[in-house]
Amino acid sequence: MCTSSVSNLSIPFSAATHHGIRVLKTPRALRFRVIRCIAAPDLLQEAAVLQLADAGGEFRFEEYMASKVKLVNAALDSAVPLRHPVKIHEAMRYSLMAGGKRVRPILCLASCELVGGEEALALPAACAVEMIHTMSLIHDDLPCMDDDDLRRGRPTNHKVYGEDTAVLAGDALLSLAFQHVATRTGDVAPDRVLRAVAELGASVGSEGLVAGQIVDIASEGVDVDAAVLEYIHVHKTSKLLEAAVVCGAIVGGGGTEEVERVRKYARCVGLLFQVVDDILDVTRSTEELGKTAGKDLVSDKATYPKLMGLEKARDFAAELVGRAKAELACFDAERAAPLYALARYIALRHN
């Protein structure tokens, strides 16, 4: 149960260097150690493995991510078998099983465990979030939208299966997501399953992902202010990531205050994800990103580097990390460790 309050927006960190290893210390004896890094001029170019040392225990981030990715991939593989009609299921699986970081489903599982639930309770919701996310990528890449030929290092869905099948594959994944949560979630009270379904629906509809997408389209080639840009990214990116975290807490048995805490955490992390995306689009190559670099610049889209400049965008990303971590301060440090680490991972990612 969350009992303490947070008066500051960010957790104060002190930093030191020991034999070339950067050590970050936080309150409550929570310590993150960067145990491997690549020399880089700024925070967002640093690749790190995080280790939590608290009361003699260890949290190894790379091992945690690898185990969760394996779990999620196996569940997704089982959820969408290759069956009749073969073409549509091939197209669904082509994008769904194309790899990726699986950040959203892992956040869902971590949030469930944060409030004391078992990961199995949240696995259907985690898969559903990834299905919805994959749908959004398939549709986003279509010629009528972003018109992209590359996703996760290989041809986009419509380039392989045609635009008609790509549209239908996305539609099928979207509908399957809700079916999957409703029929596969076990040992969770029906009212909580219903709340999770409602959360997912709100994240993707006309007041969620679709809202962000339509305003994004309307903003191409137009000068927008910070409020409009935030609206685009909160709805287009942050809302689904928020749903992942909130659904995990709901099915895990979280109380009202706990759910609201993780919702605020997720809003910061979701916006952070998009800010970093904007930065990477202008600082990384197509090969590094696995998708077409500089696409936003060519399309004259509203982005944070365009609005405030690259350095201020990086500063904003760092601020969002602090805000996200602050929302976790009242939770058990050991249970919160994955969410602390995931916030930093999202800030430090290079693709």
From TrEMBL:
Q: In which pathway does it act?
A: Isoprenoid biosynthesis
Which Pfam family name is an example for this entry? polyprenyl_synt
Report if keyword GTP-binding is assigned: no
Task: Name the domain of life.
Answer: Eukaryota
Cofactor(s) essential for the protein: Mg(2+)
Keyword Transmembrane helix on entry: no
Q: Which GO terms describe its molecular function?
A: metal ion binding; prenyltransferase activity
Please cite one Gene Ontology biological process associated with this protein: isoprenoid biosynthetic process
Q: Which GO terms describe its cellular component?
A: cytoplasm
Q: Which UniProt keywords apply?
A: Isoprene biosynthesis, Magnesium, Metal-binding, Transferase
The UniProt similarity line reads:
Belongs to the FPP/GGPP synthase family.
Q: What is the protein's given name?
A: Geranylgeranyl diphosphate synthase
Question: What is the source species?
Answer: Aristolochia fimbriata
